[in-house]
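re: ur question from yesterday

yeah so i grabbed the chain u mentioned. its 629 aa long if i counted rite. heres the sequnce exactly as i have it in my notes:
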Amino acid sequence: MGGAHSRDELLDSSDSEYEEESENEASYEDANEGSSEGRVKTPSSIDDVDAKLKALKLKYSSKNPNPNNVKLYLHNSVDSKWEIYEKLTTYSFVKTCSVEGESDDDEEDEDGEKGFWVLKVGSKIRSKVGAEMQLKTLVDQRRVDFIAKGVWAMRFFTEQHYEAFLVQFQNCTFENMYGFEAIDENKLKVYGKDFIGWANPEAADDSMWEDADDSFSKSPASATPVRASQDLTEEFEEAANGGIQSLALGALDNSFLVGENGIQVVKNFAHGIQGKGAFVNFGGGSASASKFVQSTPKKTLLMKAETSMLLMSPLNESKLRSTGLHQFDIETGKVVTEWKFGKDGTEITMRDITNDSKSSQLDPSGSTFLGLDDNRLCRWDMRDRHGIVQDLAGSNSNMRTPVLNWDQGHQFSRGTNFQCFATTGDGSVVVGSLDGKIRLYSINSMRQAKTAFPGLGSPVTHVDVTFDGKWIVGTTDTYLVVICTLFTDKDGNSKTGFAGRMGNRIAAPRLLKLNPLDSHLAGVNNKFHSAQFSWVTENGRQERHIVATVGKFSVIWNFQQVKDGSHECYRSQQGLKSCYCYKIVLRDDSIVESRFMHDKFAVTDSPEAPLVIATPMKVSSFSLSNRRQ
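ran it thru and got these structure tokens back, copy pasting raw so excuse formatting
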């Protein structure tokens, strides 16, 4: 289960067919062009002249083929093999207002909107150029694989024509994303002068990736070697009492499955989570708790040494934001408080909440947490302004719902479009946005970002960061983006982008993607969600894996391989480096969440803590062990 995936095999034995034909044509030309004396003979008849002209034509066509000629393959999902679809066809990039339409003119539609770039291949393929095509490049085979109502591969006849296609594809992708022609001036406008290496990765400074890679291998936490060959073994499987909506992993004794009807307590072990404990029904305990029947909590947060849980429910199915939350006391099994979000006497909404830092859920005295909305980033305090914790347990249910204290933060003008956030070990904050930008805020200020990484054209729907703040992983629908925040300041000191402005020596990001075949198998409507590093809450410990979910797949990348610039994935690529070496765990239902347990649950023969995968009706635990060779 969970074998490494690489689908870069040769398409078929006829891949060298074109070259062999060219060699035969050249031999034919040589035989007809000269005599044994090395002199050119005068043709003696019309037939000879005609033969000579045909030979010249053959020579010209073989040395100067149509640059848009390709050999097209289709992957047969039934037999799981590549088949030649067309031995010779052509591609073109056209600008149009409709993918399915016949018009290829650069014109405006009825609403005055400009067209977009589409890739056409023969009469079968017509697809809007962009990340959704999941284009994968294989330079050594002069080949690209992609999705367009099926999985296709195109093989080019010359290296020059292959490279020309890639340039065109990248330029059309840029224009479709940003609405600008892909010229240097516009790239500078999109990325900024400090991040121009993101537009031209070959010229970017990757030294920080390599330096961080060295420090990882020298870390005391690296006593267990990280190997490419690691096996996943299913250890436990537990059925759920109701449809699981979210997973709240604890670092102490228990973890929690939040479902449609209530909260199921499970025990933490060295090989996963198992054993049903108490089940708390949302419909009982208090009038406040009964409101959960109307709306299942979508966001949970453990606090106070994991004795308390915050539960945030959306206003309704169409509105993800919430005007408040409930505080659930784990020891008594009751909802003890209902809170409202408010500022300056006005009720406001939040779309997400998170802990103050990576380890703050273990703090028994913690009373603050962070909140995020489209244009708000703030810290909430569950104590009132006089330092008294507000608690409604056993109080009059007719009392006014308490309002959380806005402790710190900023309400931005329109345009930030925040979507998600996470915190480091020291409480620095990383925020992902609808436009793909990722902003870094220090522990001292939420008003102005220390660093703002440009977007790559896709909204960031989830973000995570390592405990030391050196690495960020952002989730988009079709790929994950991994960013190194390290830089060297003017005094030669190594810092992260949370602590200061990074200047212009900024490493290009790396992308984590599924092969087009696996992406197609995951389903056209299934998108990446909730990519996270393995869970570390101590200085000196290193995150070793990244896990994300797409459909019924839980996808795992070895973080050390991702950082290794000499890794085989990167050897035959152009543009931003993309890692396709991963393991897949397939479940029989769509996955709600995939997460690694706390680092302390890693056993001696394993390089990682157990992986927990929750589907609506059950939760499974997997151990990761080194394969003996």
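noticed a couple things. The first helix runs from residue 17 to 33. also Confidence is low (pLDDT under 50) at residues 16-44, 216-228, 285-290, 386-399.
anyway ttyl
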